[in-house]
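User: Working on a comparison across species. This one is UPF0352 protein JJB97_02030 from Tenebrionibacter intestinalis. Can you predict its structure so I can line it up against the others?
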Amino acid sequence: MPQTSRYSDERVETLLTELVEVLEKHKAPTDLSLMVLGNMVTHLINTHVSAAQRSLLARSFADALQASVNDEQAH
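Assistant: Here's the predicted structure for UPF0352 protein JJB97_02030 from Tenebrionibacter intestinalis:
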């Protein structure tokens, strides 16, 4: 069952587009992009989530990421 979001698709797509544009502007390769995005996630969790909830949120995020990864060959 798909989850519904409190954020509009348009808002999500706008932010995603802007983040991709920044990475492309800096010609960041995939590994650097993933490092930066991972550091951003860590920063958000550590600064905006209570210590008691951090581990659970990190696990939920990791599980959602794993579930969203397509196992088919890339390009």
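For your comparison, note: The radius of gyration is 14 Å.

User: Helpful, thanks.
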